[in-house]
Design a protein that fits this description.
This protein has 893 residues and is α+β, with helices and mostly antiparallel strands. The chain is 21% helix and 31% strand. Helix 9 (659-667) packs across helix 11 (701-710) and helix 11 (701-710) runs antiparallel to helix 12 (714-722). Bound molecules: beta-D-glucopyranose.
Length: 893
Amino acid sequence: MMAYAGEVGVEGLSVERRYDPIGIDAVHPRFAWRLVGSGPGARQTGYQLQVVDTDSPDAGWSAPTWDTARVADGDSAYIAYTGPALVSRHRYAWRVRAWNGDGSETAWSTPSAFETGLLSTGDWSARWIAHIVPDLVSEPEELRGERPAPAFRRRFNLSSAPSRARLYITALGLYEASINGTRVGDERLTPGWTDYHRRIEYQTYDVTPLLQQGDNVLAVTLGDGWYAGHVGPWGRHRYGDAPALLCQLDSQLAAGGLETVATDDRWVASSTGTLLNDLQMGERTDLRRERSASDDAGWDPVSLRAAPGAQLVAARDDGIHVVEALPALEVRAIEAAPGDRRYIVDLGANAAGVVRLRTAGTPGQRVVIRHAEALDAGGELYIENLRGAEQQDEFVLADAAPVILEPRFTFHGFRYAEVSGLDAPLTADDIESHVLSSATRMVGQFSCSDPLVDMLQRNIVTSLRANFISIPTDCPQRNERLGWTADLQIFAPTALFNADVTNMVNKWLDDLVDTQLPSGAYADIAPAPSGWAGAGNTAWSDAGVIVPWVLYERSGDARVLDRMYDSMRRYIAFLEADQTQGLRFAGRYGDWVSLGARTDKLFIGTAYLVYVFNLFARIAATVGRTDDEERARELSDRARKALQRRFVDGEGRLTVDTQTAYAMALGFDLLPDSGRAAAGQHLAELVESADTHLATGFLGTPLVMPALSDNGHHELACRLLRQDTYPSWLFEVRQGATSIWERWNGWTPENGFYSPRMNSFNHYAFGAVGDWMYRYLAGLNPVEPGYRRTELRPRPGGGFTAARATHESLYGTHACGWRIVDETLHVVARVPPNTSATLVLPINTVDGVQMNGGPLAASSAMHAAAGDVRIEVPPGEHTFNAPYHSVASERMR
Ligand code: BGC
């Protein structure tokens, strides 16, 4: 719906942060909508929402299933459905209208819809089935032992075409389904990774157009995936040894009646030409052995399997998709001997995904594709750092026809591919990289006047996408790819600025709760396959409190706090017991992969204790548990005092003299207020004495920059970001990095590659500086949960002459951009309807400030302090100009 300036309308209707979702299982789904329009009136004062069960014969807009009537409330997000119980497989239409600031009402929105999945176990008539070929079960230790992917098939007849048909499907392993030869949906690596003994997600697909009256065939191929394939460095079979399938096709026939085709012993199975498939090892497919699902010969009966007993839940996010196709930048042929030709292909960015290759050859010809993040000095693939992950795909061609080769049950972390075994010459047009990610909806943009920092931003996004694959992982390439908890708690704010991964992270929090031990400790990785022992480690396990809070702050969804509350409370009880008089040892990891001075782990453990107790106090306050809040505050104070007694000397200095310790002291509020300025000064000195370089690891790095900017050293923070000598963010960029490295010294001109034992070039943790870039450099700060209120605060420094950030929240697009031209600061501020914003300008006086080309209305400005002019900005896009003398900041350098 279009709205004219000043006129307010309603659009962007979403349910559980998805548009027109089908197959949801939330019993009280939450609605959100966006107001359109601008000016002070673009503010909601009330709403009315109606829901119609379109599958109930007598419901309609005149007799809605649920009608809120007019609610005098400004909230336009997370409005929970509280009408009559939702019914499985029903489709609900909904619409909303709003009352705005001046009391007028909008028209009804265009209706939107959502549809329920299978809400109770009784709705499933399907049985789990598998294809058991006893002599083919290979030994777990045999890395590349063949084990053909099984295919399953069911022929069935429909007496009429369906008016609506849904496929509900999941697997222990991975599945790919087709109906009458057409692939169902375009998600990859479904159903994703959970602890399959506890929780299995199913997907729902609209397959109405794929079915026909008469004969139909539903076929599904299964891969090993996380269930039966390699996970981490621990080999195969972490959850089970053979994949299994559960699916149910419900068709509502145009002629009336529901026809269900569900997995049971009427299905048949067969081995496919995919002889090996593994997320880490790769895929081996003999196309000669592929068969069509409509070919009736040679199918085996299926084996019924007992249900795993895990909870079946509807997938909450949109799954993994091909999010980009990267063209080949360079194809280099290497001819070792006549006829023995290989190609090294540069696909431009170190992403996660698969190669898509078009070729033609001869029957029986074997094409091999290997993948690596980097090339060695000789221009060959550098694969040592992949450790046990082979990342190799092989295809045996069936005939001479042109063919497109792309594996379906694996993914690799790579920038370079080596292709061998081709007959025809390979050109750049024949090959591309299909980038895979669960981060399908990018919602943020950052850019600035320094092209190297813009490249850093691109690298952050590349590593974000590469490591949001079903779960948030540490890396996508070596035999690890695990849901390391600290990595996410550090990176989550940056991730959420750039991509709407809210639902996926929410799902991962369930994975984390699944790892919780009887002691209350969370594991250091989630999901945690059986046999994993690490738990309760500082900054890792603490993710169980930190991530829900970050998610709440950035998404505005308080339900995550309610849902996680009891679990978090058990974790807090664990922390309370796992300390000595307020001091806690950090356990295993400390300031992981820091260069330079080590930060005492007793300091880190205690610092996190203060921080996490304090966060929990805020969480308890938010959910209204004042008793818990008080207790957590006491615990936090006690730990703070213990830390001060132990680590602050008579002069107010920390006895742990590292950048990380000072950054934590400032970021986690560990010091008395009177000590902050001196600590900020000392941190600045530490950075300066390192010649403006970082000496921090995973834990210190994200804290250094805000600690500097918040304590009078923003100029230094800007220069630190722009530092391009080793070690620094831009050093990596200058070495040609296209992703964020795990370690500062991953590769240096002096020493080449760091030890391959732990050296990934695609770890997002150090990309956590992205949050600072959005908030402190461009100046886009969410200050109330879900961006209901923002502070827009341009902060030039370090020679930057421009920066700009945007983010699309549930309310619309927020933006803060600035540019300095000829001693004038130009600012563009964008404020979505139904949110408020304060613009804070780094100038001393409102004199000469212009808004939208005219003088600033006296009422809208409030001059607070020197260097800090505050202006309330109404919804809409506005420009501001102010006299600005950057000389002052230049002189500070
Ligand atoms: C992972 C890290 C992780 C760490 C903890 C590494 O192997 O790659 O990202 O946080 O282990 O020990």
